[in-house]
Amino acid sequence: MTVIAFSDVRIRYPRAARDAIAGVSFAAERGVVTAVTGPNGSGKSTLVRALLRRVPLAGGRLLLDDVPLSTLPPRAVARRIAVVPQREDPLFPLAVREYIALGRFPHSRAWQGERRADAAQIAAASDRAGVQDLLRRHTDELSGGEWQRVRIARALAQGGEALVLDEPTTFLDVAHEMAVFELVAELAREGMTVLLITHQLNLVARFAARVVLLHVGTVAAAGTPAEVMTGPILERVYEWPLVVGRDPAVGAPMLIPLRARPHHSPYHSPLSSPRQ
Amino acid sequence: MHTRFWIGALVALVGAAILGIALGPVGLSPAQLWSAVAGHADPAIRGIVRTVRVPRVALALLVGAGLGMSGAAMQGTLRNALAEPYLLGVSGGAAVGAVIAVALHGSTAVVVPIAAFAGSAVAAGLVLGTARVAGAGVMGGGRADGRLLLMAGVVVGAFANAAIMVAFAVAPPDTVRGALWWMMGSVDAGDWSRVAWLGLYVAAGGAALLLWARDIDALALGEEAAAALGVDVEGASRRTYLGAALLAAATVAAAGLVGFVGLIVPHIVRAAGIRRHRTLVAGGAVVGGALVVAADVIARTIHPPAELPLGAVTALVGVPFFLIQLRRIAVSE
Fold it and tell me: Using a CB-CB distance cutoff of 8 angstroms, which residues of chain B are in contact with residue A55?
């Protein structure tokens, strides 16, 4: 069953020469990880901004269980879709417990304090993201990996059925990156809809059921990792010589970008003679 | 939660208020003070306490509370540790209004506060309007986010200051002096009617900011994070900015410009580890009230019978205190 669907979505920033998103359609379904990937500037984060209604749609529709998102109040959407934006920098550091508790914002009324159900959800989310030991620290005392997990805990505290993460593993080392992907995959297995925006093609290949590859605001390819991650498609989209091999451990497609030719000129198409 | 902060802040407030009622040209002993409060002092002392000292202290308390709450709300909404109502056009607009009123009417107690409030409201409206128009050009959606509000506020404030300088250059000296005095801030015109209307205003404005404090918590994380939590970012930013600006404008109308309170009070409260804006706004009211009441005591007792300008004293008292606290502020922020 479909949860979040983009239907022929078009977005253009004011004074931009072209659409940032030019007719993108795909759906993120329940119980699987759907990954959106593509080169810098391909429009990945614009899709997240559209979900957050930070940019107006020039055309098409964004649907949540077949209901147009624009007809739903923002708080009602936040109760169902939790988004971890790419950037977030609290001006004044909060205690981690306080920060995670903000995830309950869409559920509580103006004068309502923290209810027992809120506390339970906060505790469960902290457990889930593995941040129980950090609750008494402050947000400015965390390492990059801890901060990302705390942000995911805040999103889980929202308690929705869908989770959208925008580049959650930038700046993370291998172990922390894998931990985030494992967590996300586990949440999907339990029935959550996960929409993951990421550059990490090799991890996408191993964790995502479906991949949407964006290229200058359009869908260059969509399908399973094996269908999308082929040499010709990726070389065309990334405009860089590469080979696609097999991950020796699990057999997933594995991207290996190649070195540019010696004395490579930026005016010379890298596609003309990829070096092995 | 934060018990030590609340005890300290309330003790400071009550202590400053007692000093404010006891000290003055006629000093009152604790016994006289008590009998005046209990109602069996001699009529002269009772008169001093009830019609002069208490309303003055109450007015100072309300001015400080309003500015403290306003500053706490603005810093969170605009995500800027230097944001405060005076920086963002409120004081400039009020001063322009007051100068115009003084120039046209002479210095009258009734017209100046109204003109000052109107000037502040116009400035706040200009800030919102400018930010909205500018934002519409950028995103096509009528945005008025924190950065745009901040820039528009600083620029409108600078424009107002320039307008005042021009007015001073061309106005007759008496006019200048009257307006200048008013701009230095004072609560010596404190009477019960002024206390009553400012009290109503501070109660209503403070209640609104406390109600919106949850939105401010989310806005303080950044606009995308706030949107992810289901906050209407533009609407909430505009609302809280306007509420905070009008609250500060009311204090300006009641007591002129009492600088620095909106800037430092939120930092003092945060140094106690308070981050959620409902507590921060409430704490700002208590600390701001204590600060202005204490500053007024100093302003009128340090060099009698002359009174120092209240706005100068809040800065003279506030800066050392702020510097002493700076280490704690640096650690906690």
Answer: 139, 141
Nearest CB partner across the interface for A102, out of B75, B218, B273:
B218
Just give the CATH number of A2-229: 3.40.50.300
The CATH number of whichever domain residue B125 belongs to comes to 1.10.3470.10
Q: What ipTM describes this predicted complex?
A: 0.87
CB contact under 8 A, B228 and A82: yes
Domain locations in chain A?
Answer: 2-229, 234-276
Total domains, chain B: 1
Structure confidence by residue, pLDDT tens digits, B249-301: 888 888 888 888 998 899 989 888 888 999 999 999 999 999 999 999 998 88
What φ, ψ does residue B309 adopt, rounded to 5°? Answer: -65, 130
Q: Print burial letters for A81-92: b (CB count within 10 Å at least 16), e (below 16).
A: bbbbbeebebbb
**What are the structure tokens assigned to A20, written together?**
């940032």
Contact: B230, A78; criterion CB under 8 Å: yes
Q: How far apart are CA B120 and CA B319, in angstroms?
A: 25
Q: Do A105 and B217 touch (CB under 8 A)?
A: yes
CB A198 within 8 A of CB A148: no
Q: Rounded CA gap, B267 and A168, in Å?
A: 32
Each residue's pLDDT tens digit, B37-64: 777 778 888 888 888 888 999 999 999 9
Q: Are A172 and A8 in contact (CB under 8 A)?
A: no
